[in-house]
Write a structure and sequence with these properties.
147 residues; 5 helices; Universal stress protein; five-stranded parallel sheet
């Protein structure tokens, strides 16, 4: 049924929980697992001259790479043959949907909440936008908050 499972990650505990579901789904269907982090830099680029040459960009890119590396590590004890990681730059929901199309993804597994604080609401809106725009099913994993 599923040959390729995508789990977008922001490195949060919520993303790790969604990854558990994605890993289980990939194992059950003998599917490849894809981990994607999107650097949402558009808002910052206009405010910081030479942003892409700055140490801030490097730190964000490093954090994104760490998020997908952590997910790869999380999947190491599974029976998944292939784990592909990627760090893209752009608008999160748009990049997730484009990744789905480029890599022939069959299902997306995402957390409904991510980081705490101001960005907490962001991951919920990203998930909602992906649900609305995705050409494939999206499994939204509720994490955090009240049961």
């Amino acid at each position: 049924m599923y040959d390729a499972v995508l789990v977008p990650t922001d490195g949060s505990d919520g993303s790790a929980t969604a990854a558990e579901h994605a890993i289980d789904l990939a194992e059950r269907h003998d599917a490849d697992l894809h981990a994607l982090h999107v650097l949402e830099t558009e808002q910052v680029v206009d405010q910081i001259p030479d942003f892409e040459d700055s140490s801030i960009f490097d730190r964000l890119a490093d954090a994104g790479q760490q998020a997908v590396d952590d997910l790869r590590e999380q999947a190491e004890d599974s029976d998944i043959d292939t784990v592909t990681t990627a760090v893209e730059q752009g608008v999160a929901h748009e990049e997730v949907v484009e990744y789905v199309k480029r890599h022939d993804i069959d299902v997306v597994v995402m957390a409904t909440e991510g980081r705490t604080g101001p960005s907490r609401e962001l991951i919920g809106s990203v998930t909602e936008s992906v649900v609305r725009a995705s050409p494939v099913p999206v499994l939204a994993v509720k994490v955090g908050g009240e049961p």
